Amino acid sequence: MKNYSEVDLTNQMVYVYKNGKQVYSSICVTGLDTDLERRTRTGCYYIKDKKEEYVLTGADYSTPTKYWVRIMWTGTGYHYLGRSDWGRWSPQIYKTRGSHGCINLQLNDARNIYNSVKMRDAVFIHY
Q1: For site-directed labelling of 81, which of 42, 69, 71, 90 has its Cα 20 to 30 A away?
Q2: How far apart are CA 39 and CA 118, in angstroms?
Q3: Contacts of 83 (CB under 8 A, 6+ apart)
Q4: What pTM does this model have?
């Protein structure tokens, strides 16, 4: 497998690989780890859909976003989120201010990842 991305939940990082070599990395914020419904699930998945603009909906939210890359049919994916706390980011932020399971990214990182990954590329999510 030469083209894939990786989400390191422990370090809250995304890595993108082309032809087996890392071509991009960024910080991220993943699912709220203390909530089983919001935790980002580990495993190997494949990119299923990409949309430049998309509205994420759940029981308690409706959020327009950019650079949506669907990883799981349950709704987990990479996407931009204009969080007010990016300036205070740390690898532990997801433990108290995590997402609803998605991999939140800053705008430039979301755009770069969106443009770097392709349909059916593998995505490895791990601690």
Answers
A1: 42
A2: 25
A3: 29, 104
A4: 0.96
User: Running DSSP on this structure, what letter comes out for residue 115?
Assistant: H
| Buried b / exposed e along 81-110 (16+ C-beta atoms within 10 A) | bebeeeeebeeebbeeebbbbbbbbbeebb
Pairing label, strands 13-18, 61-70: unpaired
The string of pLDDT tens digits covering residues 1-41 is: 799 999 999 999 999 999 999 999 999 999 999 999 999 99
HEC sequence for 33-69: CCCCCCCCCCEEEECCEEEEEEEEEECCEEEEEEEEE
Distance of CA 29 to the CA centre of its chain: 8
